[in-house]
User: Fold this.
Amino acid sequence: ETGVTQSPTHLIKTRGQQVTLRCSSQSGHNTVSWYQQALGQGPQFIFQYYREEENGRGNFPPRFSGLQFPNYSSELNVNALELDDSALYLCASSPTVVSPLHFGNGTRLTVT
Amino acid sequence: GESVGLHLPTLSVQEGDNSIINCAYSNSASDYFIWYKQESGKGPQFIIDIRSNMDKRQGQRVTVLLNKTVKHLSLQIAATQPGDSAVYFCAENQDNNDMRFGAGTRLTVKP
Assistant:
């Protein structure tokens, strides 16, 4: 059984640029959630996708957007990057909407 | 707004002792809680969960206790081992499918 995989593992971008992060969900999981984790803090919910539709959103601006594909993989897009967007971005899949999340190891984004 | 929080940011225990990590939550409508373990450089790893219709749930070497009266959650780790050293998060399920995480407790196991 393949777990959640994220790419890239590390990324450096300049303020104002756009970034796309990718996630492959665990086999059999139809729900994907994205989290932002700043250094020394707990993960903060960005949004969740269920069967290709957004199924809940946290307190993040519209420049954070996402997609889920028919194979349940997912992308997180961030436009107009700001310095405060520097963080670890975690993707998690789950077999149903309310069930334990299975996390990938994240993408470390640095915005300079 | 309502949020999940933790009583102690750090906890140091001797190898072989039992560990207790506490968590306070303020959303009385939350009905599902999870404990996660996060090791350096990795994503959070599921440990154990509990629904609000239960007070206690046991796993392998771990027990979660839920006290809805005082909105308190705890994780007990029996016979703590060096491999248990990590940051532990409690999380509660919010209405918008947001698993709201606390700030975390760093557990250090001394040999």
Q: What stands out?
A: The longest strand of chain B covers residues 86-93.
